Amino acid sequence: MIRVLLVDDQPLIRSGFRALLDVEDDIEVVAEAGDGNEGLALIRKHLPDVALVDIQMPVVDGIEATRRIVEDPALAQVHVVILTNYGFDEYVLDALRAGAAGFLVKDIQPEDFLHAVRVAARGEALLAPAITRKLINRYVTQAQPVAVSGALDALTNRERQALVLVAQGLSNDEIADRLVISPHTAKTHINRAMTKLHVRDRAQLVVVAYESGLVTPRNH
């Protein structure tokens, strides 16, 4: 059973998402909160698999809530998915930096929403290749890469190649085709890169790749 907690200051949004989730046999909504502070308290109490968190809320916003969840070892199982009204807005990159597993636009189709919850519950980053490319484009316009981090030295050549391709928005199957390896092997390289770089998911890999300078606009 996938345990979900909703955090949004708009009751209508919460009730709409809950209505979709409650009819699914494999999903349970364990609680709802109207602001980030209340959400954090309920997340600590219920330990959900997925926390759907609005990015803009009173008291504690979604970015700060995400940061506190990620920094708390007791909440390591909680996968934060950011909810936004505006697609890839100015706050989304900050949320991903804070440790969110991905984000959803609130006008998402119901079937896509349910799929996204299940993806997040499996611990996979909720960033489809098209969304990753939007992340890249926004990042390129907002910041310049800094010096390559020493942490990248721990990566093997294959892991580094896989990381570059993740940051370019390729799916695991596309990475496998590009490197002429199996999808399983591609996923293994990506998972090992996440472990060595101490990041939670694919979204964080994209941020690290750009902020470290491993990937720059000219080789995207």
3D architecture notes:
- The chain has 220 residues and is of the alpha/beta class.
- It is built from ten helices and five strands; from the N terminus they run E-H-E-H-E-H-E-H-E-H-H-H-H-H-H.
- The protein has helices spanning 11-22, 36-46, 62-71, 92-98, 110-121, 129-142, 157-167, 172-179, 183-197, 202-211, and strands at 2-7, 27-33, 50-54, 79-84, 102-105.
- Strands 2-1-3-4-5 form a five-stranded parallel β-sheet, sandwiched between helices.
- Helix 2 runs parallel beside helix 3 and helix 6 packs parallel to helix 10 (202-211).
- The chain is globular, with a radius of gyration of 17 Å.
- The chain starts with a strand and ends in a 9-residue tail after the last helix.
- The relative contact order is 0.11.
- The model is unreliable at 143-148 (pLDDT under 50).
Estimated structural class: alpha/beta
**Strand elements, count:** 5
| Overall residue-averaged pLDDT value | 84
- First-residue to last-residue Cα separation: 39 Å
Elements, N to C (H/E):
EHEHEHEHEHHHHHH
* Fraction in beta strands: 5-15%
Count of alpha and pi helical runs: 10
What sort of overall outline do the alpha carbons produce when their principal axes are compared?
Answer: globular
Helix content: 40-55%
Oligomer: single chain
